[in-house]
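Field log, afternoon session.

UNIT: design team B
ACTIVITY: writing a sequence onto a fixed backbone
BACKBONE:
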């Protein structure tokens, strides 16, 4: 049952400290006093598809500017938040549920010299408290489907945005062949707590008080992306094993393979959406 799902059941979330090993291996020592370039971290810290390019797209869709306040919901290591702050100068709150991803992300932001622009908050979006209208923009990559109670979190996003504020989301959705009988396994593998189909996704955003400006189904694109990602991961096994444990290789491979399996049979799909708060 979804109530018993644990976030660490999703194998992508093993070993938050692994990114520090990857940075060391690519010449960015933790003890170095030289600033860490955001681009160097972006090679590892983007826990979604098409990395920083997708974040650039979100920045353009929303028109984020230096004097804006941005909330990233489900920030992981804070990769998208750092790209937004570095590119636009905006102030970003990177909200993350998992303590290990939150604290590693906060240390990366400090090393990038962005601590004055990106604030890392550890908490659950459903229960964390911010004043109404605190943000000009809310953004989220592959995180909303994790959060239980779609009606509660879409309403809360609306509440936290100023009138006219903008929302950009990339998210997993139920695919056209989503099978309710297999839902328990799929939900556990993906820590999916509120996945719905494409039409319901758009309706839920509208019902929360948004005008949907753009909504694109990303299923085919993400099927190709994840299939290539798995092939590259397998080809680079030796290099990965030179840095990390076999257990981490197996955990990450398991997750990458499951995603390909689910996209391939249309059990899951992808949504990219831009909306304006009414
Ligand atoms: C797939 S990761 C994406 C991270 C980041 N958006 C990125 O693209 O790099 C989704 C993140 O959402 C976080 N998350 C899940 N439920 C959450 C909640 N209720 N509140 C805040 N964060 C949550 C997870 O812990 C995870 O780190």
């Amino acid at each position: 049952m979804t109530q018993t799902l644990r976030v660490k059941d999703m194998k992508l979330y093993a070993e938050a400290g692994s990114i520090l090993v990857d940075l060391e291996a690519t010449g960015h020592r933790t003890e170095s006093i030289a600033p860490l370039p955001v681009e160097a971290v972006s090679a590892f810290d983007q826990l979604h598809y098409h990395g920083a390019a997708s974040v650039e797209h979100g920045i353009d869709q929303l028109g984020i500017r230096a004097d804006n306040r941005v909330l990233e919901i489900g920030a992981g290591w804070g990769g998208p938040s750092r790209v937004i702050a570095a590119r636009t100068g905006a102030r970003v709150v990177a909200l993350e549920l998992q303590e290990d991803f939150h604290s590693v992300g906060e240390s990366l932001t400090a090393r990038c010299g962005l601590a004055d622009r990106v604030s890392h908050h550890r908490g659950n979006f459903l229960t964390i408290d911010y004043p109404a209208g605190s943000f000009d923009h809310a953004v989220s990559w592959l995180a909303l489907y994790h959060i239980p109670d779609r009606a509660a979190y879409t309403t809360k996003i609306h509440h936290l945005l100023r009138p006219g504020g903008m929302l950009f989301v990339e998210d997993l959705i139920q695919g056209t062949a989503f099978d309710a009988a297999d839902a328990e396994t799929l939900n556990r593998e993906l820590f999916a707590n509120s996945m719905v189909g494409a039409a319901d996704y758009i309706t839920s955003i509208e019902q929360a008080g948004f005008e949907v400006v753009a909504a694109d189904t990303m299923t085919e694109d993400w099927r190709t992306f994840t299939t290539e990602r798995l092939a590259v991961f397998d080809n680079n096994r030796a290099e990965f094993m030179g840095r990390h444990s076999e257990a981490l290789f197996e955990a990450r491979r398991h997750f990458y393979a499951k995603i390909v399996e689910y996209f391939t049979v249309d059990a899951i799909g992808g949504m990219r959406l831009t909306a304006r708060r009414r």
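LOG NOTE: The chain has one domain: 2-218+266-277.
NEXT ACTIVITY: expression trials, pending approval
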